[in-house]
Design goal:
Elements (H helix, E strand, L loop, with lengths): L6 H10 L15 E7 L3 H14 L4 E4 L15 E2 L8 H13 L1 H5 L10 E5 L2 H16 L5 E4 H7 L15 E5 L3 E2 L2 H14 L3 E3 L4 E7 L2 E7 L2 E10 L5 H6 L8 E10 L9 E4 L4 E5 L5 E11 L7 H14 L8 E11 L6 E4 L5 E5 L9 H14 L13 H4 L5 H10 L1
Parallel strand pairs: 1-2, 1-11, 2-8, 4-13, 11-18
Antiparallel strand pairs: 3-7, 4-6, 5-6, 9-10, 10-11, 12-15, 12-16, 13-14, 14-15, 17-18
Helix pairs in contact: 2-7, 2-10, 3-10
């Protein structure tokens, strides 16, 4: 351990009040860069880091309209997993999970990766068949997966409602033991520090207001801190993808919705896994502080607000109590909302756009946080080589024109509705 992070250093700062060294440089925009990344969330920061580390492109700026961690990277429920079923998605999210497993070492920053395992419950015989098929898909792709019967679930999760009068009977489930959670703000800070150390400029409180064009080519961006020219420009702005792309004249098949998350008062640890409720798009885990962290569906209307709505609070609370009656008297400590890019098929876009030197990373729906490392890895490759990485060629923007959508969202809903 270096002196900077030693016990002696901690004591010295505590006793003297000496200021801590900044984790990343407070950069101001230069006139031009080889690459400009719009968006200082997890995907944008990871892209900048892998551009520098994997491809030697260090003349890079990440432009963030607010502060690092202010968007969806700090407004989610921190889940990571690779239990996907569609060809292409399976391999992509497994690559992401493998990157998560080594991320703290890679960044020399504790991202608090906790591989506590995720269990997806089945509430009917047909649901059990569906999760078994998903498990077989995972095993065929070299991904860990185990089918659980009712007795297995009861041993792992004894606190669920197994009574004969329960609202949703439990027939079994599937577990991915390598899945789990990660500390979301540590991910943003870790990537920001690592990218900055490699020479990337991270420019906060700088909003992009337009694009600089030369015919059908994007040559830079207009910002609240002036014009910044760029050899190549990438968009990675989560729920504002359609709004930013519209400034370049692109109309995307993307809607923005709010996705709420909730946390209770802290209690003694007892939820030792991530649990997904097969009767609804509901999930729950327990944080290191003891609070139960959970969430459900998006709110069913378009919005750019980050405020929660009361009807969703009721629906999600009903799911929580139906699954774990013992938590019914817990107090809800707080809740928050992230803005989701929702696409027609529930899968994202990574790749080139019709405008030369403009690249797009967006449309992540419910999948954005868990995709962070692989998204940055593949987006950096795409920008550096002007061609989509093999892992994301199925996520190209023109897939609807080609008639081959990736309805992972539909598969997921079908699983839950059986």
């Amino acid at each position: 351990m270096t002196e900077r992070y030693s016990a002696l250093a901690l004591a010295r700062h505590a006793l003297t009040g000496a200021p801590w060294e900044r984790a990343w440089r407070a950069a101001e925009p230069r006139k031009s860069y080889d690459v400009v990344i719009i968006g200082g969330g997890g995907h944008g920061l990871a892209t900048a880091y892998y551009l520098a580390k994997n491809h030697g492109i260090t003349n890079v700026a990440v432009i963030e309209k607010s502060y690092i961690g202010s968007g969806n990277v700090g407004r989610n429920t921190t889940l990571i997993r690779s239990n996907y079923q569609m060809p292409g998605n399976t391999q992509f999210f497994e690559h992401s999970l493998q990157l998560w497993e080594g991320l703290s070492h890679e960044l020399n920053y504790n991202a608090m990766v906790s591989q506590r395992g995720q269990i997806v419950l089945a509430h009917s015989p047909s649901q059990l068949d569906v999760v078994a098929r998903k498990g077989n898909t995972m095993l065929l792709n070299g991904i860990d997966s185990e089918l659980l019967d009712r007795g297995d679930v009861m041993r792992l999760l004894p606190y669920l409602d197994y009574s004969k009068d329960c609202r949703f009977p439990i027939y079994g489930g599937i577990i991915q033991r390598r899945a789990g959670t990660v500390r979301h703000d540590a991910v943003a800070w870790g990537y920001a520090r690592a990218a900055s150390n490699l020479g990337v400029d991270i420019i906060e409180n700088c909003e992009v207001t337009g694009f600089v064009r030369d015919g059908e080519r994007i040559t830079g961006v207009e910002t609240t801190k002036g014009r910044v020219l760029a050899g190549r420009t990438g968009i990675a702005v989560a729920g504002h993808t359609s709004a930013v792309a519209a400034m370049a004249g692109l109309r995307l098949p993307v809607e923005s919705h709010i996705l709420q998350a909730f946390v209770t008062e802290p209690i003694k640890p007892f939820v030792h896994h991530v649990i997904s409720f097969g009767a609804e798009l509901f999930y729950i885990s327990q944080s290191d502080k003891g609070g139960l962290v959970f969430g459900g569906h998006i709110d069913g209307f378009n919005t750019y607000t980050q405020r929660g709505q009361l009807p969703k609070i009721q629906t999600v609370a009903e799911c929580a109590v139906a699954l774990i009656p013992g938590i019914s008297r817990l107090r809800l400590l707080r809740h928050w909302g992230g803005i989701q890019d929702m696409t027609p098929d529930g899968s994202p876009f990574i790749g080139r756009t019709p405008l030369r030197d403009l690249y797009l990373n967006g449309g992540w729906c419910y999948q954005g946080f868990k995709a962070t490392p692989a998204s940055g890895w593949c987006f950096a490759h795409t920008i550096a080589h002007e061609d989509e990485h093999p892992l994301v060629r199925h996520m190209r923007l023109d897939r609807f024109e080609r008639g081959n959508g990736l309805d992972e969202y539909g598969l997921g809903l079908w699983t839950y509705r059986q």
